[in-house]
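WARN retry 2 of 3 for item q-0093 after timeout on previous attempt; input resubmitted unchanged.
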Amino acid sequence: MLSLSVSIRRRPLQRRGQAGFSMIEALVAVLVLSFGLMALAGFQLRVLADSAGASKKNIAVQLAGDMADRIRSNLVTGPVAGNPYVSDWSLAGADAPKPSCAEADAACSASELAAYDVWSWKRTVAAALPGGVADIQSKATAGGLLFVHIAWNESAVANPIPPESSWNCPADKACMEVTVAVPQP
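OK item q-0093 returned
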């Protein structure tokens, strides 16, 4: 008789502890993922705040350039210290100065046109920027220069650098300055 013998080898026993993820490993992975997503959300909020701040600064630069152009185009005689464009931080009144210089055929003097320019410009600043106010200063030591300041409400996060104290910028506002060389007739 023929005998067939087949030897059966047994595999050594495997450990069963590494067969898959445990619940704790899955929870740790979810926790790490959630921290990463929260950091991304915080970064996105910071980018949005910086973008809004940059937009306000861009508007302020355009408004300051508008006033600089108005000052340069209106030849006002006399010393810069008494320039009719010099104004304080007050808001523009509801009524335009008299006589109105709005029409193309209006016969206004240089001083009257300056008063109208300041009034209409301050109204535009207030409408274009949140809490927007503006002033124009002259300094005796600066020669033929005027200093245009625009201030608006801005969070401290978007505007961490305080303005120069000599600008007399209103408290808790972002502030910028544009220097205008006044043409001397």
